[in-house]
């Protein structure tokens, strides 16, 4: 698709997503806009003076003034979501956008606000000649895995152990901050398909019939179970709600973090690719680039 056509498509996608969520996504520029953005981020992550704020207003003002992105999703005059991203430079000289934080107010969760913000971000980046967005996410949070890899059509470029150190906010609860590194190629066919609602999700049942093997799965009692395997295609399962587990059973949460690092983390570090994930919590890994095309259903 020609650049102008891709930008037009991206802006149309963003407009549809905003309409569906009942929000208006706008840029935040001046210092007067930023305290509300900071307050929203802190509320989403459960941060206070003892745990350290997410991004103070002056940092957001500087970020926007330096050409970065600070966008807010408004429902009427109420800020119900926001994103903050800065421009980065890859080792090969490519300019990309690093999306540091995107949050949706608790009362607006599940209404499509996050989609509106991310599709707006795609249009924002393409308008500025940026073709790639990167960010990190907790690989144990299933809804984020599905959102990033299925709904947005993004890929995974790496696994970082304890990337931010121990965070004491309500969501991380002092757990190791292992992260998957997301690589969103804004013009990739998979992303363009996702922009029109044609998402790809692996068919795990078919893959298991073809020889894919579970490397990590959840036992009926909720504990992680590792099964060593030399299969070329691997399946790694995560629990439905790790954040609830962190609040109710910290020891079990730590066990899951260790199990995922030993399986998903080790596999990515030795060169296997995360080719997708399913809504019921399975990551699919493979060294074969053709596997996803054969196994996914659009």
From TrEMBL:
<feature type="domain" description="BioF2-like acetyltransferase">
    <location>
        <begin position="13"/>
        <end position="134"/>
    </location>
</feature>
<dbReference type="InterPro" id="IPR038740">
    <property type="entry name" value="BioF2-like_GNAT_dom"/>
</dbReference>
<dbReference type="InterPro" id="IPR038764">
    <property type="entry name" value="GNAT_N_AcTrfase_prd"/>
</dbReference>
<protein>
    <recommendedName>
        <fullName>BioF2-like acetyltransferase domain-containing protein</fullName>
    </recommendedName>
</protein>
<dbReference type="Pfam" id="PF13480">
    <property type="entry name" value="Acetyltransf_6"/>
</dbReference>
<dbReference type="InterPro" id="IPR016181">
    <property type="entry name" value="Acyl_CoA_acyltransferase"/>
</dbReference>
């Amino acid at each position: 698709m020609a650049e102008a056509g891709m930008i037009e498509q991206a802006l149309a996608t963003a407009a549809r997503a905003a309409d569906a969520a009942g929000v208006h996504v706008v840029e935040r520029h001046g210092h007067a806009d930023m305290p509300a953005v900071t307050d929203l981020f802190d509320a989403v992550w459960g941060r206070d003076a003892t745990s350290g704020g997410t991004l103070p207003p002056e940092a957001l003002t500087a970020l926007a003034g330096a050409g970065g992105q600070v966008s807010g999703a408004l429902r009427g005059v109420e800020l119900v979501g926001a994103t903050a991203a800065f421009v980065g430079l890859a080792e090969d000289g490519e300019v990309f956008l690093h999306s540091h934080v995107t949050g949706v107010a608790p009362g607006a969760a599940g209404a499509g606000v996050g989609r509106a913000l991310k599709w707006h971000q795609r249009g924002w980046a393409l308008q500025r000649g940026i073709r790639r967005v990167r960010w990190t996410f907790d690989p144990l949070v299933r809804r984020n895995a599905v959102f990033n890899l299925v709904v947005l059509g993004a890929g995974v470029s790496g696994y970082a152990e304890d990337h931010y150190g121990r965070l004491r906010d309500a969501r991380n609860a002092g757990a190791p901050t292992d992260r998957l590194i997301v690589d969103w190629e804004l013009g990739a066919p998979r992303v363009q398909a996702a922009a029109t609602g044609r998402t790809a999700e692996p068919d795990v049942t078919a893959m298991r019939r073809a020889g894919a093997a579970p490397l990590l799965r959840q036992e009926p009692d909720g504990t992680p179970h590792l099964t060593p395997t030399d299969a070329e295609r691997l399946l790694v399962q995560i629990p439905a709600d790790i954040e609830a587990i962190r609040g109710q059973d910290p020891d079990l949460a730590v066990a899951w973090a260790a199990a995922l690092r030993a399986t998903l983390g080790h596999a990515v570090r030795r060169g296997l690719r995360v080719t997708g994930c399913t809504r019921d919590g399975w990551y699919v890994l493979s060294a074969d680039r053709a596997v996803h095309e054969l196994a996914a259903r659009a």
